[in-house]
Amino acid sequence: MTEVAAAPSKVGPELERQLEQHRRELTAYSYRMLGSAFEAEDAVQETMVRAWRSVDRFEGRSSLRSWLYRIATNVCLDMLDGRNRRARPMEIGTEGTGEGPLGDVLPESVWLQPMPDGRVLAPETDPAELAVQRESIRLAFMAALQHLPARQRVVLILREVLRWKADEVAALLGSSVASVNSALQRARATMDASGLTPSDVVEPEDDDQRELLARYLEAFESYDLDALTALLAEDATLSMPPYPLWMRGPANIRQWMLGVGSVCRGSRLVPTVANGSPAFGHYHPAPDGGHAAWALQVIEVNDGKIVALNSFLDAAVLFPLFGLPLTLPAEEAAP
Fold it and tell me: Around Cβ 307, how many Cβ atoms within 10 Å?
């Protein structure tokens, strides 16, 4: 773990600067713990408030960074106390078909939420380290994390993702090194047994990925389902939180898109990134001739094929988070 300045300045603007330089990494940590972009931001804000209130008691025995992580950990543990884990539709309901039905809308608190890369990944990070960080926010990895008891989740994130030493984690949690090592062993076993393995780590500028995404965008916007399903793996999944329906395989996905999903015909896609993966803002045709926000698509890729189409339908909430407009005027939406 890289240490920084031992003690924060008591001067207001300087303290604020020192705290703010850790906001992005604390947001990433809180997101891995909580599975919600909005709860992660709430947790970090509460962390900053607690830090401001208690700075006079900070004695500099650890780094400012370690101190903030201790506060953030306590905030996240408080928020997780007594709550169910967040999940993906594939973990909640039985496999459906292209015929549906969608099922009832489930509360936001049920679902693992997407996160914009820019809020949790620092672009200036070493490329090798950035790949590790990107992998650790993949939807599949995030879903597997949610299977861990809260304190095991802390240990695994700090030890495996952030590379803290066992004694540093023990000091943060007020426990022993032996306890930390035991928790890490149990966490690893749970992760291995979850069956939720991350998709390929592909650099955003990878030529093969850019070609695949260009073909997907063209196929989706032209609603060429022959071309689109040719890009899917045989076991590709489609899911649509907040609905529990999910389905597997190109045939079911094609049937859905020709049936209930045919309302997507004439849509437009705007590229973005989420959870270390390619993503699109999905806009439906609007009565005024433009296009209106419909869903955030997160695309998972493995071995040159699309293995998951994750459509998060709470566009009114998610699009502002991703810096996407809620509407595309007709002149901007024209092919």
Answer: 18
